[in-house]
């Protein structure tokens, strides 16, 4: 980089996080990013940070870029609810929607096992939760609603079945639904709105299980916003992106209300969601994200955004949507990118803080910052995988891992006698 040296702290073990915990202070929202959906170290370091936030700062739950129904099963498992599964593998095998490696991996299994162990000696209202923020699970959420209402409210279940029948002709295919309603007014919007209204009105009477009632209402909200998302998906621009991130923000706010006025949340999502969109070229397209929305709605003093990145290594991804997962080589970051600057700033992994980075004039302009999605073609990444970003404004802190490894998918290692070594720096 230019004349001034990048200020950073060595990132070597969990004690290296002391300075990060101090910087987080009394923030109620800690957003932990990742630069790909298939990098082991992003998961393990986020786990290390989350464990300390839960045990030392009394954070209430982890909310992730995952589907509500599947994540809610994990939530009930780690809290020890009846009939919630007997093993972490039983629970994580429910993540069947592509990309399966994103949550069905040993890194997440280790987190889930720790959460279950941590919760065993906690009162029910002190147990740490695990929830999905995403909007994709339209058909699964409708199915969950029908099953729940059949057991708890026979008068409302017919509205749910009506909504389910409306989407039936599209065979669990959101693309087919989006194309079918692209040029006509008729869709299933009224049906999902009706079920949300009825569940919202009746949820307190369903059962004594407050969290299960909340889950039924959340599934109805997913159905409403998923229908809106798929309706917007066929159009150009960032409208569907905004529907998705606003849904995630709405869900996060609902979870905070559920957990009380002093609730604290840890959010796990990709950098493109948790790094403030206003500090990237996303803003020119009118796109927002949850990092921006948390800052706007709850104040910068209550939000702490942590980005992640690496210089090179391997990652799990697919060549196209729905393709078989592959362990791919992540090439050295392109010259003059944020990751290249960090690699050349000194040896080893690093922890940086925006408060210190703001003193460097050269960081006030946009710099290319790598973003790898579930679809990835390494040979072409220089042409489309770098997001121009003003880093000190996009995040409050940044974890840089110089060389990374791909995640370990559960199904590849399920029969192994020993799980992979995930924490070389200790647990």
Query: How much helicity do the residues have?
Result: 40-55%
How much of the polypeptide forms β-strand, as a percent range? 5-15%
At the fold tier of CATH, the topology name of the largest domain is EreA/ChaN-like  fold
Structural class per helix/strand content?
alpha/beta
Largest sheet: 9 strands, mixed
| Low-pLDDT residue intervals, each spanning 5 or more residues | none
CATH superfamily membership of the largest domain, which one? EreA-like (biosynthetic domain)
Q: Over the alpha carbons, how many angstroms does the gyration radius reach? A: 21 Å
Which second-level CATH architecture of the largest domain applies? 3-Layer(aba) Sandwich
| Count of distinct strands | 11
Number of helices: 17
The arrangement of helices and strands along the chain is EHEHEHHHEHHHHHHEHHEEHEHEEHEH
Mean pLDDT: 91
Cα end-to-end separation: 34 Å
- Tell me, what's the shape? globular
CATH class of the largest domain, anyone?
A: Alpha Beta
Organism: Adhaeribacter pallidiroseus
Keywords: Methyltransferase, Transferase
Pfam families: Erythro_esteras
InterPro entries: Emycin_Estase (IPR007815), Hydrolase/PRTase-associated (IPR052036), UCP036794_erythomycin (IPR014622)
Structural notes for this entry:
The structure is a single chain. It contains 17 helices and 11 strands. By secondary structure, the chain is α/β, with parallel strands linked by helices. It has 2 domains: 1-66 and 264-414 and 421-427, EreA-like (biosynthetic domain) (EreA/ChaN-like  fold), CATH 3.40.1660.10; 133-244. Strands 1, 2, 3, 4, 5, 6, 7, 8 and 11 form a 9-stranded mixed sheet that branches. Strands 9-10 form a two-stranded antiparallel ribbon. Strand 6 and strand 7 (326-330) form a beta hairpin. The longest helix has 24 residues, at 210-233. The protein starts with 8 loop residues before the first strand and ends in a 14-residue tail after the last helix. The mean pLDDT is 91. This is Protein-L-isoaspartate(D-aspartate) O-methyltransferase. Keywords: Methyltransferase, Transferase. Pfam families: Erythro_esteras (PF05139). Its EC number is 2.1.1.77.
């Amino acid at each position: 980089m230019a004349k001034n040296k990048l200020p950073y702290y060595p990132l070597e073990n969990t004690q290296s996080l002391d300075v990060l915990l101090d910087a987080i202070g009394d923030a109620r929202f800690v957003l932990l990013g990742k630069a790909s959906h298939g990098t082991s170290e992003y998961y393990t370091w986020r786990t290390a940070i989350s464990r300390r936030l839960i045990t030392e700062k009394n954070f209430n739950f982890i909310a992730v870029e995952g589907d509500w129904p599947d994540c809610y099963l994990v939530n009930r498992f780690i809290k020890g609810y009846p009939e919630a599964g007997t093993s972490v593998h039983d629970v994580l095998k429910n993540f069947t929607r592509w990309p399966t490696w994103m949550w069905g991996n040993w890194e997440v299994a280790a987190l889930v096992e720790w959460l279950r162990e941590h919760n065993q000696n906690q009162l029910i209202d002190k147990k740490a939760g695990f929830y999905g923020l995403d909007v994709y699970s339209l058909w699964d959420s409708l199915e969950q609603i029908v099953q729940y209402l059949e057991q708890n409210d026979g008068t409302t279940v017919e509205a749910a079945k009506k909504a389910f029948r409306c989407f039936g002709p599209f065979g669990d295919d959101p693309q087919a639904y989006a194309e079918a309603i692209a040029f006509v007014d008729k869709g299933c919007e009224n049906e999902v709105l009706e079920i949300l209204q009825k569940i919202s009105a009746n949820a307190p009477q369903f059962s004594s299980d407050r969290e299960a009632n909340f889950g039924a209402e959340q599934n109805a909200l997913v159905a409403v916003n998923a229908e809106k998302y798929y309706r917007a998906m066929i159009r150009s621009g960032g409208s569907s992106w905004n529907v998705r991130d606003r849904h995630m923000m709405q869900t996060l706010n609902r979870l905070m209300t559920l957990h009380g006025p002093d609730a604290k949340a840890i959010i796990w999502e990709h950098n493109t969601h948790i790094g403030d969109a206003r500090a990237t070229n996303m803003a020119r397209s009118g796109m927002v994200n949850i990092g921006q929305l948390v800052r706007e709605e709850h104040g910068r003093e209550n939000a702490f955004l942590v980005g992640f990145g690496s210089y090179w290594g391997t990652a799990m991804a697919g060549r196209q949507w729905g393709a078989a997962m592959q362990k791919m080589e992540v090439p050295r970051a392109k010259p003059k990118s944020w990751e290249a600057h960090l690699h050349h700033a000194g040896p080893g992994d690093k922890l940086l803080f925006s408060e210190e980075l703001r003193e460097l004039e050269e960081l006030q302009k946009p710099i290319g910052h790598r973003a790898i999605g579930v679809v990835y073609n390494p040979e072409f990444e220089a042409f489309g995988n770098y997001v121009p970003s003003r880093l000190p404004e996009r995040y409050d802190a940044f974890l840089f891992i110089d060389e990374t490894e791909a995640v370990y998918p559960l199904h590849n290692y399920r029969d192994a006698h020993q799980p992979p070594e995930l924490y070389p720096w200790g647990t």
